[in-house]
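Task card 7
Instruction: Convert sequence to structure tokens.
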Amino acid sequence: MRVLVVEDEQLLADAVATGLRREAMAVDVVYDGAAALERIGVNDYDVVVLDRDLPLVHGDDVCRKIVELGMPTRVLMLTASGDVSDRVEGLEIGADDYLPKPFAFTELTARVRALGRRTTVALPPVLERSGIKLDPNRREVFRDGREIQLAPKEFAVLEVLMRSEGAVVSAEQLLEKAWDENTDPFTNVVRVTVMTLRRKLGEPPVIVTVPGSGYRI
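Output:
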């Protein structure tokens, strides 16, 4: 899942990004509304975690732009105000969910995951295919009943492949969904991660390489 965190309190923004990355999400971070508009014009995000009171361009205007562009991106709006009227106004602008500060990180993570599921065709909370069972909420993976320990990027790649339901996923698509914008697109990080993932999943191999196209399960 690709997430953009937009928050002018840099310590909070970086803490949220670090936590979401530990949950196997690809996360970009910006600290003002103008930078947010620049990013959403370049990258496809599943979810934007958007502070409402932003410098340069207000969070409301960022949210309106996402809606205006007709993007499938979901918006989780954050604010220091817990007033019901503010929450209603944020939802009327086009936000998909609303979370007042201070918040529990576990709740934010759950809301981000729930919104991420709404950007694509609805799938069951636990994904199963070819003997593999992947639970995004619990960060658990099993193959034929055997639990498999995966690093965050390995988990992210496997989740993208599982969600594709047998369709071929290109290396570029994996790079966009599982890594943030600081990753060099010319590295072999995708190929190396897929190789490691194959090894951990064991025999017989379930990740198929489609020459010139990508990978599928």
